[in-house]
Specification:
6 strands; two-stranded antiparallel sheet; two-stranded antiparallel ribbon; alpha+beta; single chain; 100 residues; globular; Ribosomal Protein S8, Chain: A, domain 1; 4 helices
């Protein structure tokens, strides 16, 4: 189920990290900043390797249309801001709206 907040589609129920911390997926970040998911993953991996954001494990994601499995990341709130700032500073307001 999806809800629209300030013109941004967001999941009605946000996923959580193991300690109950809210997350958003790398796919959602890609949609939010209108970027390719592969480019978002490259940015996430670069920021992890440089120690700027936490270490995340790629999780399997099965595409509903073609049935193929891809990787995605579940990102905490703080790190999502860092990733979006790297990808597209102009979309930071959309991210703020998503977390509200």
């Amino acid at each position: 189920m999806v809800q629209t907040i300030n013109g941004v589609n967001v999941p009605a129920a946000m996923p959580h990290l193991p300690h109950g911390q809210l997350t958003m997926s790398s796919r959602e970040i890609a949609n939010l900043v209108e970027s390719r998911h592969a480019d978002v993953c490259i940015t996430i991996e670069r920021l992890m390797n440089s120690g700027v954001i936490g270490g995340y494990t790629a999780l399997p994601y099965t595409h509903p249309q073609n049935g193929q499995t891809y990787k995605e990341y579940q990102i905490c709130k703080r790190d999502s801001y860092v990733i979006v700032a790297q990808l597209s500073p102009a979309f930071t307001a959309r991210l703020v709206d998503r977390w509200q």
